[in-house]
Amino acid sequence: MKKSMKSLLGVFCAALLMLTGCGQTANHPTTASSDEPLKVVATTTMLADLARNIGGEYANVSALMGPGIDPHLYQASAGDVSLMQQADVVIYNGLHLEGKMGEIFQSLSTRGDHVICIENGLEPSQLLSAEGSSDIPDPHIWFDVSLWKSAAQTVADGLSKADSAHTDTYQANMKTYLTELEELDAYIHSRAEEIPQQQRVLVTAHDAFQYFGRAYGFEVKGLQGISTDAEAGTADVSTLADFIVERKIKAIFVESSVPPKTIQALQAAIRAKGFESVIGGELYSDSLGDAEAGTDTYITSFKANIDTIVDALK
Ligand SMILES: [Zn+2]
């Protein structure tokens, strides 16, 4: 009886977390500023890069997840939890991107620690939801540069709150970075326009690119849904293969944070229907690339993505 009550409570708490997404952060007094840089822990590589750009010399940033790691499935280790507990600031995406970490963020927020949740800086009207279920938000907001500009603002405000002595620097860094993001946005638009509108169809391993599609005029199809948590069934593969054959889409794409086998299965299904679609390359979806490939920043990985997409579909 006791045990079942406990598991019921667990289910209830999990359901509550599902509903709330980003927890409300308790008010926390500004930490005294010292010459020590802020210890900032970000969940994803995208957020760590954003924090480095805004925090500059006053932030010592680490990412929990490395290149190629899938945030939907990521389970925090005991080491991760203690890293977050010892950090001055924790940054996460929210919108259930870090699907297995909700309870950890909840307890950090309840403690009144400095927690920056990108979701809290966005209006519901800016968000997309999962296909067919309006109450499940799409977390992949970094694929619309205008939303990433909001994220930059949220991070600048959060760092300023945690370390008010350097507010001017954080705000100035943000302004500089916003200019770089505007240049990136213009680059993506101009490359996208090289493809005729009816050929702008992006087929990838999971549904990470809906914001990209909305911002830059692409029709987007993901083999798996907005989370990699559920596998694509054979019916999904077959339906998508029919669509590709009918529209004569010449390239489909693998993602760096999702195993390539689903896209390879799709390619085989297309071939079985008598059409040939090449694998147009690997896209950085839910993580950035690495320094060796020169794609370890948001800007360089996004440029690599649009170049890969346009070169394959043109
Ligand atoms: Zn994803």
Instruction: Give the averaged pLDDT, no decimals.
Output: 89
Q: Which percent range describes the beta-strand content?
A: 5-15%
- Number of H- or I-type helical stretches: 10
N-to-C order of helices and strands: HEHEHEHEHHEHEHEHEH
Give the end-to-end Cα distance, rounded to a whole number of Å.
Answer: 63 Å
Poorly predicted ranges (pLDDT <50, ≥5 residues)? 1-20, 25-32
Number of domains: 2
Largest sheet: 4 strands, parallel
CATH class annotation of the largest domain? Alpha Beta
- Helix and strand composition category: alpha/beta
Radius of gyration: 20 Å
Across the major sheet, the strand order is 2-1-3-4
What can be said about this structure in brief?
The chain is of the alpha/beta class and 314 residues long. The chain has helices at residues 2-20, 45-55, 78-86, 102-110, 145-162, 167-192, 210-216, 234-247, 261-272, 298-313; strands spanning 38-42, 59-63, 89-92, 114-117, 201-206, 219-224, 251-255, 278-283.
Could you characterize what this model shows?
With 314 residues, the chain is α/β, with parallel strands linked by helices. It folds into two domains: 175 residues, Rossmann fold, CATH 3.40.50; 124 residues, 3-Layer(aba) Sandwich (Rossmann fold), CATH 3.40.50.1980. It contains ten helices and eight strands. The strands form three sheets. Strands 2-1-3-4 form a four-stranded parallel sheet, sandwiched between helices. Helix 2 crosses helix 5. The longest helix is centred in the middle third of the chain and has 26 residues. The radius of gyration is 20 Å and the shape is globular. 43% of the residues are buried. The N terminus is likely disordered. Bound molecules: zinc ion. Zinc ion binds next to loops.
